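Re: the request from the purification team.
They wanted to know what the chain is likely to look like in 3D before they choose a buffer screen. I agreed to run a prediction and write the result into the notebook, where they can find it.
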Amino acid sequence: MENLVQVDRQTPFLMPQDLKDWLPKNHIVHFIIDAVEAVSPKVSFHLNKRGSGSKQFNPEMMMELLIYSYCTKRFSSYAIEKATYTDIPTMYITAMEHPDHNTINNFRKNNKEAFKKVFTQLLLLAQTTGLMKKIGTISVDGTKIHANASKHKAVSYKYAKEQIEKYEKEVDEILKEAEKIDNTENNVNLPEEIVLKEKRISVLKNAVKQMEETQKEMIQEKMPKEPENKVDDKAQVNFTDSESRIMKFGNSNNF
């Protein structure tokens, strides 16, 4: 008999799962999380200071979610939301929480400058430390920045400045791509003209009436039609002998 690994989808786990076991230790998600947590304390995020309404998602987690998603070419807020249910690295970042697409989109819009700063510094950290040569699809310059080297301080400073400008430009392009995709996706909000409930119900009732009329016409078209008994205006009948025909005179068409 074949020696096969048993597939058991019914037995529940006896012990809680450790999310760290879901990913290999060298996965880029670990670097993104550690780097964001290293630089984010110096960044100001847009938050609801009053604490009213629903609980807010941790801004560092939201930043990590966006950076990982954009680095892996997932720009749509809808796609990112779906990934929190299906993509293991994304599920690891969010710790199984599921911010919806509106929350993701609003966080990006409200924290654009913070995002640019954190993302740029993350790319610089990857280069400075030499820990990462590539963040998803983004290549990191392999030359380490040594800004404090006394002998080549001026050269290092100039090079560091060039790299910052380069990464800032790249992050800007990423943000533009995300905005473009989110702006062209199907709008989930109701159009202005049917926001009011009364107007919306009226529009829906009219639409239902039109559909019913269309369906009725379609049914009538499919029904078998009775043969028409239409009589030609030129037809003549012999009332004394209905079976006889009126004879023509000669070759003419006159009767």
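For the purification team: The first strand starts at residue 134 and ends at 135.
Please add any questions underneath this entry.
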